[in-house]
Design brief:
Blueprint: H1 15-24, H2 27-47, H3 57-82, H4 92-108, H5 117-144, H6 146-150, H7 154-188, H8 192-215, H9 220-225, H10 234-242, H11 245-276, H12 284-310, H13 312-332, H14 337-373, H15 378-407, E1 413-414, E2 420-421, H16 427-452, H17 461-476
Antiparallel strand pairs: 1-2
Helix pairs in contact: 1-7, 1-8, 2-7, 2-8, 2-11, 3-5, 3-15, 4-5, 4-8, 5-15, 7-12, 7-14, 11-14, 11-15, 11-16, 12-13, 12-14, 13-14, 13-16, 14-17, 15-16
């Protein structure tokens, strides 16, 4: 199959590529994923009422076991990407395919047929794995490689990383944090047909936007390497990845960060419904997300200039100290708007560097691995990253649901008039939700700052990149 050509022709990254390929293009799939991260579990517990299915075991076990499949497909996808050779690069062809797969499987997640619990369980398991283990794995792997493969210029690469995160944090954040809790959730409540309509629209929106990302990106690093074939087995590639101390540390850092942020995202709706506010009151979740998220908007203009001055590692490390402090303030009085909103504001100031410059730091680690070993193993390295990203979310979901069931969570119901009736939760549920939302990240913030202290890959990266370019020039000669 011959793929359509990229609309990017220049050797340098231009404004159209930044705005269309790295900001607007990824927004569709990232928005869908952001909504799913916050609300898919709510759909399972509150709409489908699966919390107590099989004694609470179903929602606890199936997300975890599904990640075994996800891990396998991520490794396979990384291996395939490293061996993909086309005029469109090695990752972009798969980005094109994912534009069609993500919307289709996104819709399947919600059109769960009415029937027995067994029928619902089977559909949920199949649709969940079709989306996360197949379609979104293909998108996420190829999408995340766009920044590392776009250019070797660390300044430009850092700017692209910021643009990429704006798509996630700003566009997705506005809808998930503002529109959903204030407008959409109070309307749809636990109405299954309304959920299906809403999620179908979001899924279909991902199609044209992901195609835009495909047409307005270019793999300059892949073109530079050319047809060089390292011929390494998957085992040999993984050995290269895990023998590098910076890669191991960056993976450990990302794993711990993902655990904390996943538990926070999963518990956000429950915390706002039962600890700080009342069920779907239309304001509490909006205030927590928007007031706490204001720094993310300000950070667009502040983070990268600071990172260029003192280093990506250093600004991120300092940020996590604030991150932990903000979480600790929330813990002091989780029932108080003043403490929670103030703490979230401080925490998100600290989280700015992580949000905006992580992929640029990861790209530096990939270049260091190439300098050290003489080959690029982007697919293998990204497969490990992706396994962490998706597997930890699944494991966290299983653990969170297990804790919900064990602590005695009671799902809301609908009255005869079709109105949602919220349940009163026991103290054990309130305590569990509070720790998940504000307590855990007070701990992970300190741990992450310590890990980053040892990730000093930026020290010699410019010299290493010059040596890499010289090697490729000699090969061409």
């Amino acid at each position: 199959m011959r793929l359509p050509n990229s609309m990017v022709k220049t050797k340098e990254v231009k404004a159209s590529e930044k705005w269309l390929g790295y900001l607007i293009g990824p927004a569709g799939a990232l928005l869908l994923n952001a909504v799913l991260a916050t609300y898919l579990n709510v759909y399972y517990t509150d709409v489908l009422d699966l919390t107590s299915l099989w004694g609470g075991a179903f929602l606890a076990i199936f997300p975890i076991t599904s990640k075994v499949i996800d891990a396998i497909t991520n490794v396979a996808m990384g291996y395939i990407i490293d061996r993909t050779k086309s005029k469109q690069g090695k990752a972009r062809p798969w980005l094109f395919l994912s534009a069609f797969l993500v919307p289709l499987t996104g819709i399947l997640l919600f059109i769960v047929p009415d029937g027995s619990d067994l029928v619902k369980a089977i559909w949920v398991m199949i649709s969940y794995n079709l989306f996360y283990s197949f379609a979104y794995t293909i998108f996420n792997m190829s999408h995340n490689l766009m920044v590392p493969l776009s250019t070797r210029d660390t300044t430009v690469r850092g700017g692209l990383s910021v643009f990429n995160q704006i798509a996630t944090i700003m566009m997705s954040g506005i809808l998930v944090a503002l529109v959903f809790p204030t407008v959409i959730m109070p309307i749809i409540g636990v109405d299954k047909s309304a959920w299906i309509t809403m999620m179908s629209v979001l899924s279909i929106l991902a199609l044209p936007l992901t195609l835009m990302e495909y047409f307005f990106t270019k793999e300059r690093v892949t073109e530079e390497v050319g047809d060089e074939d390292h011929g390494l087995s998957l085992k040999e590639q993984m050995k290269i990845v895990f023998s590098d101390k910076y890669m191991v540390l960056i993976y450990l850092y990302f794993l711990i960060y993902t655990v904390g942020s996943s538990m926070k995202n999963l518990s956000l709706v429950y915390f706002c419904n039962y600890v700080l506010g009342s069920y779907n009151d239309g304001t509490t979740q909006m205030l927590v997300s928007v007031i706490g998220g204001i720094p993310m908007g300000i950070g667009i203009f502040a983070v990268w200039p600071i990172a260029k001055r003192i280093g990506k590692r250093n600004v991120t490390m300092a940020g996590f100290i604030l991150y932990a402090l903000g979480s600790f303030i929330c813990c002091l009085n989780p029932h108080s708007y003043v403490f929670v909103l103030g703490g979230q504001f401080i925490k998100n100031i600290g989280g700015l560097p992580c949000a905006y410059v992580f992929m640029a730091l990861f790209a530096d680690c990939l270049d260091h691995v190439e300098w050290k070993n003489g080959v690029r193993v982007d697919g293998a390295a990204m497969s490990v990253y992706n396994i962490i990203a998706v597997a930890i979310v699944g494991v966290s979901t299983g653990i969170f649901n297990m804790m919900l069931s064990a602590s005695g969570y009671v799902a809301p119901t609908m009255d005869a008039a079709g109105n949602t009736v919220a349940a009163t939760q026991p103290d054990s549920v309130i305590s569990m939700i509070t720790f998940s939302f504000v307590g855990l990240e007070a701990i992970t913030g300190i741990v992450l700052a310590v890990i980053l202290f040892f990730v000093n890959v930026e020290k010699n990266i410019e010299k290493e990149q010059e040596e890499i370019k010289a090697r490729h020039a000699n090969v061409e000669a």
